[in-house]
Specification:
Chain lengths: ~80, ~400
């Protein structure tokens, strides 16, 4: 049994790590350009995402992600493959 | 000295700190920062309800250690008090020396636990900037626009005594027009408290927290841990005069020395302390008889109290019995690397306002400590010159000579 992912939860998580308002975390926002995340922030975000969603997210994978949408798609796919497993 | 900023267990602004000092209010209470129920010492002087985001954005507050959060608040309040904005000055004209005896202990402990419990990838990428003891100086520069000389001095509980002394020297030698100088500490943590308990240095008077810190009293049983930050703005005399700044007092001299004796115990005769005090008086060109008040290191340990008393007698001779000595640690407890700056601040206010803060909880004086320690009640006194002593583990000693500003 799997649960639907809640975008609000990701908003809150990213907002806490990046020290911003949850409403600023939107699908089209870029980590670096829009949300002022530096490399240290991203390492912290990886740890938080891995803990919360029970996934493995390498630095290379996150570096390849340009926006919140990329992270969201990644989490949805992981969720789907877990459901199929 | 043109500005003061405090984030302390007895107040987070000048007037609250001053009224606590004058009224003999203790900042000591049960430890709430962590569960200390199985600790022999369960008391400390915590900074309560500090709102770091009043002084910096949320992200900055998240990514710096607690001791740095205190330092930023104290530094910004001190600059505001001085009416000085480094952003409007040549960046090289304002430097920063903010010391910490230990650094980001809470953050080290939290990340070490993360390592043991959840593995290496759960260590925060901010661990290093949060733990290193120089970061308060660095972050204060980033937050205030002070781009001159910038570092921290680490000499345990003498750290911010040295910070202020060296900052004054930097201005005297012409390297800065103004210095943001002080100290910060946040060590009410499981490992630090446990470690100080193991060296039998801290008071275990858990039932009466506010009575626990009692320098020179026969019933004392160790120091009480404090936390917080105090920051002073030191400024070139002419620069301060020209811009019409309020000059609280003058840092007239500074002397330092080493005990060459033991890692934690002071020299039993106070040999290092004697030399630090004498050097400071010489540098200030002040005779011992001119000193009216000694803000003592006075931690409330038997060894320290007796050694400092002996040292004061050696330096001042008969005059030791005429001057007033007090330990404000009896109220704000021991801020370790923040202690020297907080006590210099207390001394400056005492001179400016003509009131000497007391040593509280001094009910029965140790016969080996027979000076006038301003017991339990503050006292009006027009003192012109005072000294403030700071001594640290490792045998580091720093003495500041502080002169009242004469109206002209």
């Amino acid at each position: 049994m799997t649960q639907e992912l809640d975008f609000k939860e990701l908003q809150n998580l990213a907002a806490e790590i990046l020290g911003i308002d949850p409403n600023e975390v939107q699908l089209d926002k870029s980590f670096q350009r829009d949300l002022a995340a530096d490399s240290l922030d991203l390492v912290e975000l990886i740890a938080a995402v891995e803990d919360k969603y029970d996934v493995e997210l390498s630095e290379e994978t996150l570096e390849g992600m340009k926006s919140i949408r990329d992270l969201w798609v990644f989490l949805e796919e992981k969720q789907k493959s877990k459901a199929e497993a | 000295m043109t500005g003061l900023g405090f984030v302390t267990p007895i107040g987070q602004d000048i007037e609250t700190v001053w009224s606590s000092l004058v009224e003999g209010v203790s900042g000591v209470g049960p430890i709430t920062r962590f569960d200390a129920s199985d600790y022999a010492c369960r008391i400390a002087a915590e900074v309560k309800d500090y709102d770091a985001e009043r002084f910096m954005d949320r992200k900055t507050a998240r990514h710096i250690g607690r001791y740095c959060q205190f330092a930023v608040g104290a530094a910004k309040m001190a600059l505001e008090d001085a009416g000085l904005d480094p952003h409007e000055m040549d960046p090289d004209d304002v430097g920063v020396i903010i010391s910490s005896g230990i650094g980001g202990m809470e953050e080290i402990e939290r990340n070490h636990s993360a390592l043991l419990e959840r593995g290496v990838r759960r260590i925060s990428p901010f661990t290093v900037p949060m733990m290193i003891a120089d970061m308060a100086a660095g972050i204060v520069a980033m937050q205030t626009g002070a781009g001159g000389l910038n570092y921290a001095i680490v000499s345990a509980c003498a750290s911010s005594g040295h910070a202020i002394g060296e900052a004054a020297e930097i201005i005297k030698r012409g390297d800065s027009v103004a210095m943001i100088a002080g100290g910060a500490e946040a060590t009410i943590t499981p490992l630090t408290m446990g470690a100080f308990i193991q060296i039998k240095a801290v008071s275990e008077r858990n039932d009466e927290p506010e009575r626990a810190c009692r320098p020179w009293d026969v019933e004392r049983d160790g120091f009480v841990m404090g936390e917080g930050s105090a920051v002073l703005i030191l400024e070139d005399w002419e620069h301060a005069r020209k811009r019409g700044a309020h000059v609280y007092a003058e840092i007239a001299g500074y002397g330092g020395s080493a005990d060459m004796y033991h890692v934690t115990a002071p020299h039993p005769e106070g040999q290092g302390a004697i030399r630090a005090m004498r050097k400071a008086l010489t540098k200030a060109e002040v005779e011992p008889e001119e000193i009216g008040y000694v803000n003592a290191h006075g931690t409330s340990t038997k060894l320290g109290d007796v050694a400092e008393t002996k040292a004061i007698k050696a330096v001042f001779g008969d005059h030791a019995y005429k001057l007033a000595v007090s330990s404000t640690k009896s109220m704000h407890a021991h801020l370790l690397g923040g202690a020297g700056a907080l006590e210099a601040g207390a001394t400056i206010l005492a001179l400016e306002r003509g009131v000497l803060p007391p040593t509280i909880n001094l009910d029965k004086q140790d016969p080996e400590c027979d000076l006038d320690y301003v017991p339990n009640h503050s006292r009006k006194a027009d003192v012109k010159v005072a000294i403030s002593n700071s001594f640290g583990f490792g045998g580091h000693n720093a003495t500041l000579v502080i002169k009242k500003t004469e109206p002209n």
